[in-house]
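User: Study the fold:
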Amino acid sequence: MRVVLQRVKKADVEISGEIRGKIDCGLVILLGIENEDTEEDIDWLVHKIINLRIFNDEKGVMNKSLLDVDGNALVISQFTLHAKTKKGHRPSYMHAAKPDKAYPLYLKFIEKINKKISKPVQTGEFGAMMDVSLINHGPVTIIIDTKRKE
Protein backbone atom coordinates (compact mmCIF):
# COMPACT_ATOMS: atom_id res chain seq x y z
CA MET A 1 0.00 0.00 0.00
CA ARG A 2 1.36 3.38 -0.91
CA VAL A 3 0.13 6.84 -0.02
CA VAL A 4 1.03 10.36 -0.94
CA LEU A 5 0.05 12.68 1.92
CA GLN A 6 -0.38 16.36 1.32
CA ARG A 7 -0.90 18.75 4.21
CA VAL A 8 -3.56 21.18 3.06
CA LYS A 9 -5.33 24.37 4.05
CA LYS A 10 -8.29 23.17 2.01
CA ALA A 11 -9.10 20.63 -0.68
CA ASP A 12 -11.97 19.18 -2.63
CA VAL A 13 -12.72 16.48 -5.14
CA GLU A 14 -15.09 16.99 -8.03
CA ILE A 15 -16.73 14.29 -10.15
CA SER A 16 -18.77 15.21 -13.24
CA GLY A 17 -19.03 18.83 -12.09
CA GLU A 18 -20.21 17.95 -8.56
CA ILE A 19 -18.16 18.40 -5.38
CA ARG A 20 -18.13 15.00 -3.66
CA GLY A 21 -15.70 15.63 -0.83
CA LYS A 22 -14.36 18.82 0.74
CA ILE A 23 -12.10 19.58 3.69
CA ASP A 24 -10.40 22.45 5.45
CA CYS A 25 -7.16 21.97 7.41
CA GLY A 26 -5.97 18.38 7.20
CA LEU A 27 -4.59 15.77 4.84
CA VAL A 28 -5.30 14.73 1.30
CA ILE A 29 -4.46 11.03 1.20
CA LEU A 30 -3.85 9.61 -2.27
CA LEU A 31 -4.13 5.84 -1.73
CA GLY A 32 -2.66 3.18 -4.00
CA ILE A 33 -3.36 -0.48 -3.30
CA GLU A 34 -1.26 -3.30 -4.70
CA ASN A 35 -1.83 -7.02 -5.11
CA GLU A 36 -0.08 -8.12 -1.92
CA ASP A 37 -1.76 -5.63 0.43
CA THR A 38 -3.66 -6.88 3.46
CA GLU A 39 -5.56 -5.50 6.42
CA GLU A 40 -2.27 -5.49 8.37
CA ASP A 41 -0.96 -2.93 5.87
CA ILE A 42 -4.05 -0.80 6.54
CA ASP A 43 -3.58 -0.96 10.32
CA TRP A 44 0.09 0.04 10.10
CA LEU A 45 -0.62 2.82 7.61
CA VAL A 46 -3.58 4.33 9.47
CA HIS A 47 -1.57 4.43 12.70
CA LYS A 48 1.35 6.08 10.89
CA ILE A 49 -0.80 8.67 9.11
CA ILE A 50 -2.85 9.88 12.07
CA ASN A 51 0.20 10.13 14.35
CA LEU A 52 2.67 11.64 11.87
CA ARG A 53 3.82 14.98 13.28
CA ILE A 54 3.62 17.21 10.20
CA PHE A 55 1.45 20.08 11.48
CA ASN A 56 2.96 23.18 13.05
CA ASP A 57 2.88 23.88 16.75
CA GLU A 58 2.70 27.37 18.27
CA LYS A 59 6.39 27.93 17.45
CA GLY A 60 6.00 26.97 13.80
CA VAL A 61 7.71 23.60 14.25
CA MET A 62 6.15 20.49 12.70
CA ASN A 63 5.37 18.84 16.00
CA LYS A 64 1.63 18.06 15.86
CA SER A 65 -0.31 15.19 14.33
CA LEU A 66 -3.62 15.08 12.50
CA LEU A 67 -5.19 14.08 15.82
CA ASP A 68 -3.53 16.97 17.68
CA VAL A 69 -4.90 19.58 15.27
CA ASP A 70 -8.33 17.92 14.97
CA GLY A 71 -7.69 17.78 11.23
CA ASN A 72 -9.74 16.44 8.35
CA ALA A 73 -8.97 13.70 5.85
CA LEU A 74 -9.83 13.45 2.17
CA VAL A 75 -9.07 9.98 0.75
CA ILE A 76 -8.68 9.53 -3.00
CA SER A 77 -8.08 6.12 -4.58
CA GLN A 78 -5.17 6.29 -7.01
CA PHE A 79 -3.93 3.09 -8.65
CA THR A 80 -1.34 5.08 -10.62
CA LEU A 81 0.81 5.30 -7.48
CA HIS A 82 1.98 1.78 -8.38
CA ALA A 83 3.08 2.68 -11.91
CA LYS A 84 6.30 1.06 -13.07
CA THR A 85 8.22 3.15 -15.60
CA LYS A 86 11.42 1.12 -16.07
CA LYS A 87 10.69 0.01 -19.64
CA GLY A 88 9.54 2.20 -22.47
CA HIS A 89 7.32 5.24 -22.12
CA ARG A 90 3.99 3.70 -21.14
CA PRO A 91 3.68 3.02 -17.41
CA SER A 92 2.80 -0.51 -16.34
CA TYR A 93 0.22 -0.98 -13.60
CA MET A 94 0.76 -4.73 -13.12
CA HIS A 95 1.36 -4.33 -9.38
CA ALA A 96 -1.76 -2.25 -8.76
CA ALA A 97 -4.55 -4.38 -7.33
CA LYS A 98 -7.56 -5.04 -9.52
CA PRO A 99 -10.83 -3.43 -8.36
CA ASP A 100 -12.22 -6.66 -6.85
CA LYS A 101 -9.25 -6.74 -4.44
CA ALA A 102 -8.61 -3.00 -4.09
CA TYR A 103 -12.16 -1.76 -3.45
CA PRO A 104 -12.76 -3.71 -0.21
CA LEU A 105 -9.34 -2.61 1.11
CA TYR A 106 -10.10 0.99 0.14
CA LEU A 107 -13.37 0.83 2.10
CA LYS A 108 -11.62 -0.77 5.09
CA PHE A 109 -8.95 1.94 5.03
CA ILE A 110 -11.63 4.65 5.10
CA GLU A 111 -13.50 2.87 7.89
CA LYS A 112 -10.36 2.63 10.04
CA ILE A 113 -9.39 6.28 9.52
CA ASN A 114 -12.99 7.23 10.33
CA LYS A 115 -12.76 5.42 13.68
CA LYS A 116 -9.59 7.33 14.62
CA ILE A 117 -10.46 10.93 13.79
CA SER A 118 -13.37 12.94 15.15
CA LYS A 119 -14.84 13.94 11.77
CA PRO A 120 -16.20 11.93 8.88
CA VAL A 121 -13.56 11.12 6.28
CA GLN A 122 -14.29 12.74 2.93
CA THR A 123 -13.73 10.73 -0.24
CA GLY A 124 -13.93 10.74 -3.96
CA GLU A 125 -15.40 7.77 -5.79
CA PHE A 126 -13.43 4.60 -6.30
CA GLY A 127 -12.53 4.15 -9.98
CA ALA A 128 -14.05 7.45 -11.11
CA MET A 129 -12.42 10.22 -13.12
CA MET A 130 -11.88 12.89 -10.47
CA ASP A 131 -10.57 16.45 -10.32
CA VAL A 132 -8.77 17.10 -7.04
CA SER A 133 -8.07 20.70 -6.03
CA LEU A 134 -5.98 21.61 -3.03
CA ILE A 135 -3.83 24.19 -1.36
CA ASN A 136 -0.76 22.29 -0.22
CA HIS A 137 0.28 24.09 2.96
CA GLY A 138 4.03 24.33 3.42
CA PRO A 139 4.21 22.67 0.96
CA VAL A 140 4.33 19.39 2.83
CA THR A 141 4.12 16.20 0.76
CA ILE A 142 5.16 12.80 2.14
CA ILE A 143 5.21 9.37 0.52
CA ILE A 144 4.70 6.28 2.66
CA ASP A 145 4.94 2.70 1.43
CA THR A 146 3.92 -0.16 3.72
CA LYS A 147 6.33 -2.55 2.01
CA ARG A 148 9.34 -0.30 2.65
CA LYS A 149 8.23 1.10 6.04
CA GLU A 150 10.14 4.37 5.42
Summary: The domain at 2-145 is CATH 3.50.80.10 (D-tyrosyl-trna(Tyr) Deacylase; Chain: A;). The radius of gyration is 15 Å. The longest strand covers residues 131-145. The first helix runs from residue 39 to 51.
